Amino acid sequence: MARLNNKVAIITGGSGGIGKAAAARFIVEGAKVMLVDIDEHALKNTAEELGENAAYCVADVTKKMDTLHFVNATIEQFGGIDIFLANAGIEGQVAPITEYDEDIFDQVIAVNIKGVWLGIKHIFPIMQNNGGGSIVITSSTEGVRGGIGISAYTTSKHAVIGLMRGIAKEGAPDNIRVNTVNPCPVETRMMRSLENGISPGDSQGAHDRITESIPLQRYGQPEDIANIMLFLASDESAFITGGVYMADGGSTA
Questions:
Q1: I need a surface site. Which of 1, 95, 162, 206 has the fewest CB within 10 A?
Q2: Using CA atoms, how far apart are residues 149 and 151, in angstroms rounded to an integer?
């Protein structure tokens, strides 16, 4: 039997590398998926590529009304919500804290923390009424260690681990499980941006240096991360909540 048979999932950041890979894995395993992002063109293309069990909703995860919109759209389209993959995130800039732009800091915090909080806030009652569910939050290796020049991103990824731990305890009596997945660098648009910020004009050099720091000697692929997300979304992880799951090629060993 498919591991997510008859399950309904919302994936924010659904048109990005990890979100798209997770959606593909979830659908193969029997789920119906609502993709959420701010880029309608990318969302539409992704949904069409994934087929009839994927739908999409354009939304800004930092806005309450947008969050209610994608939650209600999912219920109308698929009849419920069993899985919430809080995956939307932005990297901000690469700069020392003395030079970091305050507006960019605020934007990173809004997307990476408030966006997760809002989604959980409005999906939680639905999962309570449905007898439970699984919430998976995309954090990062920077959520468990310090990152130079990415103060907003590092702050946000630490914060969602704290959020997860508190909500895991709140949700346990209602069989709502909450965990984070913490990737190291993954071959996505975000890392191209960060590499360019780390080493302007020599992003390949930055890529090579980062790769050398990973014990498995490669970046993760979106599918590597999606496989862990699938496990945490499925009933195979029915006794797992409040956990931090590293997907980092040994980077934090």
A1: 1
A2: 6
Element (H, E) at 134: strand 133-138
Sign of CA dihedral 64, 177, 78, 88: positive
pLDDT at res. 1: 66
Coil, strand or helix at 92: coil
How far, in Å, CA of 171 to CA of 232, rounded?
Answer: 15
Residue from 241, 93, 67 nearest 166 by CA = 241
Which run of H or E residues covers position 115? Answer: helix 115-130
What DSSP designation does 114 have? I
Per-domain residue ranges of the chain = 8-183+221-243, 185-219
What pLDDT, on the 0 to 100 scale, is given for residue 160? 98
Asked if 187 and 214 count as a contact pair (C-beta separation under 8 A), the reply is no
Q: What is the CATH code of the structural domain delimited by 8-183+221-243?
A: 3.40.50.720
How large is the angle between the packed helices 115-130 and 151-171, nearest 10 degrees? 20
User: Is 56 designated active site?
Assistant: no
Given a cut of 70, the residues of the chain with pLDDT beneath it are 1
